[in-house]
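To illustrate the input format used throughout this study, we show a single complete record. The first block contains the structure-token representation of the backbone; no residue identities are included at this stage. The design step must infer an amino acid for every position from geometry alone.
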């Protein structure tokens, strides 16, 4: 809890005042118990996890049996009475973690509002009139679905281990006022006023902390040839076993646009000789001879015959094509640090080099229609990551919600839920910014006679332009030509800001369960439904991206969702629980406008606009499109075993539409009243462009124990 949070301070005061008074006269009534726990996890196979590489040619990987996690923790439970009507509870969790799951110290020890929070719970239970109140740091559980959260939205989640951990462990307790009372003989109503916190997502970890609200990538040196650092985001969770590809495309050291942008600014410095160390191989504006005209595009240059390329390209071998030349000049600055270009420089043809704008897997291939005049506007660009929100919420900024539960005469239990609060998943937008004043800049677009666009970055208030100074040729434009730029009004190198924010959303849902019997087999039919309004989702505009307009190409827009799960539980044989589920997410505002265009190099490229898949969209897969309808199927088995049923084995398998799979087999056995041994196998497989399939290299086996202290 931030010491500045008025909501947190208010709730803490409500708890500590009676506790302090109680402690002054009675310590004997305290009940203290706990457990010691160890979990050791090892990779079951070899490979490289998402975001682990240090460069495009880094093939390092882990081997089967390598340590993924060595975690030692304790849970200390303290309970006490406050007078005759109230009680209080605290849970402390000291923890130390090492292994691949700890890419930096943020994961090793205590961290507020994560699985590693030392103060996990602290609340007081009391009764006022007919209301039962629980005030303090706590969990509230609304949903009961297997392996997936639907109605369980009051508390955020720590995705440090994806969904391998039990929800009780991955759920993040927050400060709240929880009021509940019964109405009549059947009804129960509950109201929640809670602190708003985000989900903790590997790869966004550093920028999700109050101490790191603004992060700047290491940028190019003044010469544009070498980097002051490695061109990568400080604190990025490289090597963490559970970084989503959809996060890697933002902050990834190799494939993240944040880090590629910082590298990109330096590479552009080598075009046209705009600094003393420039390589002078392209003249975007026709002032040097020979050179490429201002409306020449990336794909046009790549497919230009060797005989028509600038003289500087000849140094890369007889007959060097445009792809080889672009690769050589890119790597002269980038040194394979980020995924700007992925071609074979020894190939005799462009097609043979791997250049393919129809199926892009590197940054340059995503910009086939971007002109070299456009790149001038980005000369020396740097990047910055900012959070646009704070953890210190006023009570007026808290999340609020309520639930009504009841049942019918036939035994049908049901609930109606509503929650209005900040989406636990942050959204992301881009903007250009003045490097000195922080003024938000705009992108101006000019159509050329070649059917392309030239982009400029300008200050909307002053008209000042950014990037390189140049004189444009009016005859090359279908309309008015760009304004000429002089040294006097050049604003310098623009900053591309990655702006993380979160928005309030509406959550309206309900649940039901009904117990029955078929052929003497006990059955429970159950379901949950959730309607979410104004959820921000990524929108990809490939026409803008192809033209080099990053701000217009990648943005967040509001979508409404309907999500539901229907399940059937049956108990057969000897206490064998079988539970099957069908889960569907429906995107009511899914965007999918499909189109293609022909580049200057006569290739087919996409100009589509669509809702991206936030879990897996990446530079390497063409910024994968999402699904309007997304389905999951799950099967859960649970059975006690051994003498006196002292052990239990569980298995859950989930299939994801598109070909992704996850299976978790876990077991525990009570050796003594104090000692429990545990084991777990998590296996991911299938299409690597699915939520589960992308983690095939993160499959693991875990062993451990719990020692109970009464």
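Output of the design step:
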């Amino acid at each position: 809890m931030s010491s500045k949070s008025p909501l947190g301070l208010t709730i803490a005061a409500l708890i500590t005042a009676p506790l302090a008074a109680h402690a002054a006269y009675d310590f004997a009534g305290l009940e203290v118990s706990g457990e010691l726990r160890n979990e050791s996890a090892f990779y079951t196979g070899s490979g490289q996890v998402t975001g682990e590489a240090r460069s495009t040619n880094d093939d390092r990987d882990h081997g089967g049996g390598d340590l993924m996690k060595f975690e030692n923790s304790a849970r200390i439970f303290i309970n006490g009475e406050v007078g005759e009507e109230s009680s209080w509870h605290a849970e402390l969790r000291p923890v130390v973690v090492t292994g691949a799951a700890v890419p930096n110290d943020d994961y090793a020890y205590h961290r507020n509002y994560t699985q590693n929070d030392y103060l996990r719970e602290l609340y007081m239970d009391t009764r006022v009139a007919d209301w039962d109140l629980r005030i303090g740091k706590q969990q509230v559980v609304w949903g009961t679905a297997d392996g997936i959260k639907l109605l369980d939205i009051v508390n955020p989640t720590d995705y440090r281990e994806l969904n391998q951990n039990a929800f009780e462990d991955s759920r993040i307790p927050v400060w709240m006022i929880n009021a509940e009372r019964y109405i009549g003989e059947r009804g129960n109503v509950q109201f929640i006023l809670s602190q708003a916190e985000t989900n903790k997502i590997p790869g966004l970890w550093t920028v999700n902390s109050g101490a790191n609200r603004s992060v700047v990538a290491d940028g190019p040196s003044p010469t544009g040839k070498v980097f002051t650092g490695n061109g990568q985001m400080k604190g990025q969770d490289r090597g963490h076993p559970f970084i989503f590809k959809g996060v890697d495309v933002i902050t990834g050291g190799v494939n993240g646009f944040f880090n590629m942008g910082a590298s990109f600014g330096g590479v552009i410095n080598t075009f046209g000789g705009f600094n003393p160390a420039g390589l002078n191989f392209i003249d975007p504006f026709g002032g040097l001879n020979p050179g490429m005209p201002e409306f020449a595009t990336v794909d046009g240059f790549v497919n230009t015959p060797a005989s028509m390329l600038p003289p500087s390209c000849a140094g890369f071998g007889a007959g060097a094509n445009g792809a080889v030349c672009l690769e050589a000049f890119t790597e002269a600055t980038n040194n394979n640090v980020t995924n700007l270009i992925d071609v074979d420089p020894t190939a005799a043809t462009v097609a043979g080099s791997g250049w393919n704008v129809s199926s892009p897997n590197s940054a340059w291939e995503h910009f086939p229609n971007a002109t070299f005049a456009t790149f001038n506007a980005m000369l020396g660009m740097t990047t910055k990551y900012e959070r646009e929100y704070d953890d210190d919420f006023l009570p007026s900024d808290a999340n609020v919600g309520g639930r009504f539960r009841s049942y019918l005469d036939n035994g049908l239990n049901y609930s109606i839920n509503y929650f209005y609060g900040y989406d636990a998943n942050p959204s992301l937008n881009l903007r250009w910014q003045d490097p000195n004043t922080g003024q938000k800049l705009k992108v101006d677009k000019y159509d050329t006679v070649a059917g392309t666009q030239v982009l400029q970055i300008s200050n909307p208030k002053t008209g000042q332009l950014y990037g390189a100074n140049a004189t444009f040729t009016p005859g090359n434009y279908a309309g008015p030509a760009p304004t000429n730029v002089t040294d006097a009004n050049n604003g310098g190198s623009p900053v591309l800001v990655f702006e993380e924010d979160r928005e309030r959303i509406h959550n309206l849902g309900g649940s039901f369960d009904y117990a029955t019997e078929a052929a003497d087999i006990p059955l429970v039919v159950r379901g949950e439904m959730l309607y979410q309004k104004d959820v921000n989702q990524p929108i990809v505009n490939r026409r803008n991206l192809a033209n080099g307009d990053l701000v217009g190409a990648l943005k967040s827009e509001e979508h409404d969702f309907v999500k539901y799960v229907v399940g059937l539980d049956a108990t057969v044989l000897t206490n064998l629980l079988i539970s099957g589920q069908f889960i569907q997410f429906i995107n009511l505002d899914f965007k999918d406008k499909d189109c293609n265009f022909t580049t200057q190099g006569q290739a087919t490229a996409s100009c589509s606009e669509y809702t991206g898949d936030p879990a897996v969209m990446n530079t390497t897969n063409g910024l994968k499109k999402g699904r309007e309808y997304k389905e999951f199927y799950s099967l859960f088995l649970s059975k006690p075993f051994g003498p006196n049923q002292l052990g239990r084995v569980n298995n859950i398998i989930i299939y994801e539409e598109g070909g992704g799979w996850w299976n978790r087999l876990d077991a525990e056995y009570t050796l003594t009243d104090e000692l429990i041994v545990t084991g777990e196998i998590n296996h991911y497989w299938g299409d690597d462009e699915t939520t589960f399939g992308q983690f095939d290299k993160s499959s693991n086996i875990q062993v451990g124990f719990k020692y109970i202290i009464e």
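Structural context for interpreting the output: Residues 206-385 form one domain. DSSP finds eleven helices and 29 strands in the chain.
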